[in-house]
Amino acid sequence: MTEPTDKPPVPVLKPRSNFNNWISAIGGVVAIGALFSFALLVWMDFTGDHNNPYLGIFTYIVAPVFLITGIATAFFGAWAQRRWAIKHAMAPDKWRLDFTDPGQRRYLILLGSGGVVFLLLSAFGSYQTFHYAESTMFCGQVCHQAMNPEFATYQRGGHARVDCVQCHVGSGAAAFVKAKINGTHQLITYTLDSYKRPIDTPVKNLRPARETCEKCHWPEKFLGNVDLTFDHYLSDKKTTPYSVRLLLKVNEGRPGTPLSGIHWHVSKDSEVEYYAADEKRQDIVWMRVTNKKDGTQKIYRNEEFKGEPPAAAVRVMDCIDCHNRPAHVFPTANDAVEKSLALGTLSSTLPNIKRTAVQALLQKDIAGSADAPAKIAEFIKAKYKDSPEVPATVAAVQKIYAETIFPERKADWRVYPNNIGHKDWPGCFRCHDDKHKTAAGEAVSASDCTSCHVILSQGKGAELTALNASGLEFKHPGGEYDADLTCADCHNGGIQGK
To answer: 107 Cβ partners below 8 Å, 6+ apart?
Structure first.
């Protein structure tokens, strides 16, 4: 007979899932937190006022990466557990999550508490990410370190308190998709350091001006003239000041009447279309003006353009065609030095200081921003030797260079034309040059100095106090100029003419 034994029967544990292990549990917590963040970001993206492409990077790239990482970790834990079990079939199962084990219970409680905290932090982080992705700091300093020149010019511009997304991000389903694709493309090119230098302009995917500019600048408020004063300095030994005060004829009409003056170009009663033969829209060869009241049209061509423009390349003129650098103006070397002289940060007592400062900025052997300060200092010291004003002058010119010329990005005014006015670029004279004519020979008149301006005073000192309300004829400093030339034929942002 078999003697009875006092040993209790060994409990038979049910086969457990390979996912029942600590690695898979941690991966599950990460995946749940990422899924929660993804859902929250998607909800904020669809219900927010702006379809921010940079928020799309966090929503559709970063959050899914964490979700996939968490899921991958969970599956890795299952694979590792199965591999361990095969190799250690007779050994105790030390990876099992067992709530009956007091030691494991403590760790599981800690893991669960940490998971709850992780979810709360994910919610807070997602909300902060939503707002941070719309901030100017993110656009200009984090994601767009590649666009430091644009950020620097934005900070000095008239739109410095307008968030980037207000103009650069559209609304609606089509804009939503474009914004996500564009944001992803920017992330890839920035990561691979394959973005263009300089960034191409004009930007083809900007929202229409009527959706952006006119939300603040109402056409109904385009009334009256604007009083402007332009302070210049001649490139002579004394750096002689020369100012022009004028009224800019923005709109000569009265409230309730059709737009006239400069802003006639965006009047609701007329439509101006054009075709430019170059990517930068500087060489305009064809124009069509439509009177919306009676439907009549006038087509103007220059002498070189004989055919018809491609229909897809014809553009309806809007604010951006003249105000093409509304928030990112790259001042010329000449303008930047003149501003410094006007503010007193650059002394005008040194002989030929304007010419010298501009020449110091435009040295051909300045290869990059790193060697620019030394090259500028060397150039100015060679001109003025041991003058006590040299240190302050060097510092002022070095500051101008750092704020306006970006050789590492190949970005400055020479590659970014500014179509407002006509001094350093063709601007208005792209069309108003007497060379664009209809089939009947009617020309788009070439603007003279009184077509868009009323010059109230010009010169220096007491000459500026003698205002003439009926307007003065423009007096070119330094002598008469050839009437067949435009301003930009001689002025190019530097000292030498073209």
So the answer is: 22
